[in-house]
């Protein structure tokens, strides 16, 4: 069942007892998952127990198993690591250990378990479930529990959540913790880059991931690394020579002052020999005469605050885990909660564990093709080294090609700036060049086109684009219609543009729609056109998560965390924070979930003065009875014309007396961010590459003898995601699902999360609330 989070209802499941534990390596976002499990469990009338120190706590029992309270999860959502402890436990690997664990659980009536850990922890959980009837029978036979206990606890339900920074679990796009680890890596690489460039030094960085190259691969894409060594896909032939050739080749097209090489902890060559950072350093020093330093990031990668993404998936997965337990019966196989695109789904636990284990087996057999196959989605990322090598070779080759024979494909930015726009531009340029097309940038949006600000781009011009925030091309919110479709059409023709990619927000979508409507009058518009959604508002029809949102959400969370910390004085304070997003409440709602806010006001959810009073009463009640010292209320900038942020702040400040005072913060342009988050960088590159691939394919289908013509509505599209896979939806169809007046899609998937926010925010029901 996909994202059933919206269908929570109370009553039916009261009396169930749930145990939650974290096991194996810790990961940021585990606390968010535990918080959601405890609060949703309590909301449903269940008892929830913490099982501390993983399986060790389960085996040892006693104080290790404690009843969880709503308050105990306060102010935990942002924290890294796991507050309930994790351990590796030898005892649990043996049956006598599991017998003790079963006795400890049965004594408290715990028959529902949520295991948060890696494949080892989930394998242990499944084995425990299979053995459960036999373990209970033995406990009865040895008079350790009564027959009554056996009857009431006859079966054990298990749900797994994958918490691991390695992203080494098959069947999920991302595990809890991996995004935060990427934040730590990228922060370090960005910082190393400044000193590396100053001294023209090369850096070799060791990145975590014993068996899995996800972290180094994505970090490599996000930081424009020269080369990445990962266990799943070792370089062909002699890697030492390959590395030197690659650097020599790239210096012909890149004016690089530095080279960054990322090496996974478990990197190997095609024969299974380990590739260490020191090996890479030796090659670069001795064969390339470079000044090379090695940095091992180590446990820094596990540390620090959880990213917004990890808080959200931790929260949503934790919620889904409780619902899966409540749906489970004796015959229901154990499941694990995974992420497909932006959907949270249940999948059979053992199948996923077995596939994950098979990866290890195939790796030891050096069967790399099979390993890449089994790993699934992430290996379909445009692997940096091969793609960019291809780009460089094509750059060199294209010098000898007559340029007029190359079809020209343009990119333009349209709308407000958003992080990821520049990464998309780099992906676009790379794909065009490697396929023999000439990439063009149109600067300063549609007006820039009219003023002929069009330039043919070389690969080296996009260096350091991936991380840069804002729009390097220059962008404007004016749509094509506002600037003049007729002039735009003639300029497209004049500059011999055969296909167009528009990166931006609702304005980009609207411009593409304007072109669709005007194709009959202007045949110059009969070219393939694609829109890559990039806006912190997340309001492009057909798109579930646009470029820029992740960076903005992280910036909002950072600001809210800081506000909450500043309130740790004697006085109780409620902060009212205004977020961006135009008319769309996505940013406010998701940031509220990620920052542990108490309430959120958005345009899509009608609200009035009475709702503000109710929030005020709830906050008074909460701050009085729960021991919590601060409250947080988020409001989207356009939530209401009259019920402004200032108005809400004044109502809370007045009505909150004497329990709390209120303060107000408008985040404004700080949300957009000056460097892109790892997610936006990687998604930007991917979107740029894939949209270009679609455009080039469409171009090849509608061009003849150098002439391009298509008037099919299917050739003006938006790059979107369906079940985690890119798809290209026609603007004509999407227009039917668009509220043009409010600049919103008619269906917004995230609205159902509003209910979850209210469940997670209120500890006790307040009889005064109307
Ligand atoms: P990570 O990905 O961080 O390594 P993990 O869950 O895979 O996490 P493991 O050390 O493999 O980490 O497992 C954690 C604990 O789970 C072990 O210490 C052990 O108690 C239990 N466990 C693992 N495998 C089994 C098994 N086959 N049978 C019983 N218990 C197991």
UniProtKB/TrEMBL annotation:
Recorded metabolic or biological pathway in which this protein acts: Carbohydrate degradation; glycolysis; D-glyceraldehyde 3-phosphate and glycerone phosphate from D-glucose: step 3/4
InterPro entries hit by this protein: 6-Pfructokinase_euk (IPR009161), ATP_PFK (IPR022953), Phosphofructokinase_CS (IPR015912), Phosphofructokinase_dom (IPR000023), PKF_sf (IPR035966)
Top-level taxon of origin: Eukaryota
Cofactor(s) named in the record: Mg(2+)
Descriptive protein name: 6-phosphofructokinase
Entry GO MF terms: 6-phosphofructokinase activity; AMP binding; ATP binding; fructose-6-phosphate binding; identical protein binding; metal ion binding; monosaccharide binding
Chief site of localization: cytoplasm
Classification via Pfam families: PFK
Keywords tagged on the record: Allosteric enzyme, ATP-binding, Cytoplasm, Glycolysis, Kinase, Magnesium, Metal-binding, Nucleotide-binding, Transferase
Reactions accelerated catalytically: beta-D-fructose 6-phosphate + ATP = beta-D-fructose 1,6-bisphosphate + ADP + H(+)
């Amino acid at each position: 069942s996909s994202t059933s989070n919206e269908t929570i209802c109370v009553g039916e499941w009261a009396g169930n007892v749930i145990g939650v534990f974290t096991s194996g390596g810790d990961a940021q976002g585990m606390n968010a998952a535990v918080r959601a499990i405890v609060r949703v469990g309590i909301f449903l009338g269940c008892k929830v127990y913490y099982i501390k120190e993983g399986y060790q706590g389960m085996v040892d029992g006693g104080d290790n198993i404690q009843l969880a309270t709503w308050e105990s999860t306060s102010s935990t959502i942002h924290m890294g690591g796991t507050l309930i402890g994790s351990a590796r436990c030898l005892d649990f690997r043996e049956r006598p250990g599991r017998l003790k664990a079963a006795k400890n659980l049965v004594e408290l009536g715990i028959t529902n378990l949520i295991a948060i850990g890696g494949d080892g922890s989930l394998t242990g959980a499944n084995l425990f479930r299979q053995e459960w009837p036999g373990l209970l029978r033995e406990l009865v036979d040895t008079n350790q529990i009564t027959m009554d206990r056996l009857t009431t606890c006859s079966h054990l339900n298990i749900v797994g959540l994958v918490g691991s920074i390695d992203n080494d679990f098959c069947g999920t796009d991302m595990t809890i913790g991996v995004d935060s680890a990427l934040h730590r890596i990228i922060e370090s690489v960005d910082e190393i880059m400044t000193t590396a460039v100053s001294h023209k030094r090369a850096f070799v960085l060791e990145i975590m991931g014993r068996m899995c190259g996800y972290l180094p691969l994505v970090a490599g894409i996000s930081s424009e690394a020269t080369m990445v060594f990962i266990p799943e896909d070792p370089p062909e032939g002699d890697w030492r020579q390959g590395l030197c050739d690659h650097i020599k080749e790239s210096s012909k097209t890149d004016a690089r002052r530095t080279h960054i090489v990322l090496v996974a902890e478990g990197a190997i060559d095609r024969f299974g020999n380990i590739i260490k950072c020191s090996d890479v350093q030796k090659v670069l020093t001795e064969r390339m005469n470079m000044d090379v330093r090695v940095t091992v990031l180590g446990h820094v990668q596990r540390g620090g605050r959880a990213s917004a993404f990890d808080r959200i998936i931790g929260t949503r997965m934790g919620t889904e885990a409780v619902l899966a337990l409540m749906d489970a019966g004796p015959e229901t196989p154990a499941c694990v909660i995974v992420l497909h695109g932006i959907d949270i789904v249940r999948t059979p636990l053992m199948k996923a564990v077995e596939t994950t284990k098979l990866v290890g087996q195939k790796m030891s057999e050096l069967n790399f093709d099979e390993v890449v196959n089994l790993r699934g989605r992430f290996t379909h990322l445009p692997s940096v080294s091969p793609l960019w090598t291809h780009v460089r070779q094509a750059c060199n080759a294209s010098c000898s090609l007559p340029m007029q024979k190359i079809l020209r494909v343009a990119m333009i930015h349209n709308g407000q700036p958003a992080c990821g726009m520049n990464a998309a531009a780099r992906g676009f340029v790379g794909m065009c060049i490697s396929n023999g097309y000439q990439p063009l940038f149109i600067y300063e949006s549609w007006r820039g086109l009219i003023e002929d600000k069009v330039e043919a781009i070389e690969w080296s011009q996009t260096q350091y684009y991936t991380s840069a925030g804002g729009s390097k091309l220059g962008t404007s919110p004016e749509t094509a219609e506002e600037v003049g479709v007729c002039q735009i059409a003639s300029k497209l023709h004049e500059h011999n543009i055969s296909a167009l990619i528009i990166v931006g927000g609702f304005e980009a979508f609207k411009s593409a729609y304007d072109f669709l409507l005007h194709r009959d009058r202007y045949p110059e518009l009969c070219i393939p056109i694609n829109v890559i959604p990039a806006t912190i508002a997340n309001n492009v029809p057909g798109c579930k998560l646009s470029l820029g949102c992740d960076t903005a959400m992280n910036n909002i969370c950072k600001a809210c965390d800081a506000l909450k910390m500043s309130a740790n004085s004697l006085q109780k304070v409620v902060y009212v924070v205004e977020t961006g997003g135009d008319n769309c409440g996505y940013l406010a709602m998701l940031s509220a979930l990620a920052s542990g806010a108490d309430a959120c006001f958005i345009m899509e959810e009608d609200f009035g003065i009475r709702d503000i009073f109710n929030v005020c009463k709830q906050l008074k009640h909460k701050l009085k009875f729960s021991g919590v010292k601060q409250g947080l209320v988020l409001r989207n900038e356009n939530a209401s014309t009259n019920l402004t942020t200032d108005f809400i702040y004044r109502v809370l400040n007045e009505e909150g007396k004497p329990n709390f005072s209120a303060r107000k913060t408008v985040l404004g342009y700080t949300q957009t961010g000056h460097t892109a988050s790892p997610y936006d960088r990687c998604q930007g590159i991917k979107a740029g590459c894939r949209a270009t691939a679609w455009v080039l394919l469409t171009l090849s289908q509608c061009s003849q003898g150098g002439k391009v013509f298509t008037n099919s509505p299917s050739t003006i599209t938006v790059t979107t995601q369906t079940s985690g896979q890119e798809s290209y939806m026609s603007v004509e169809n999407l227009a039917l699902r668009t509220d043009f007046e409010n600049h919103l899609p008619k269906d917004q998937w995230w609205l159902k999360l509003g209910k979850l926010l209210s469940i997670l925010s209120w500890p006790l029901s307040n009889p005064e609330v109307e």
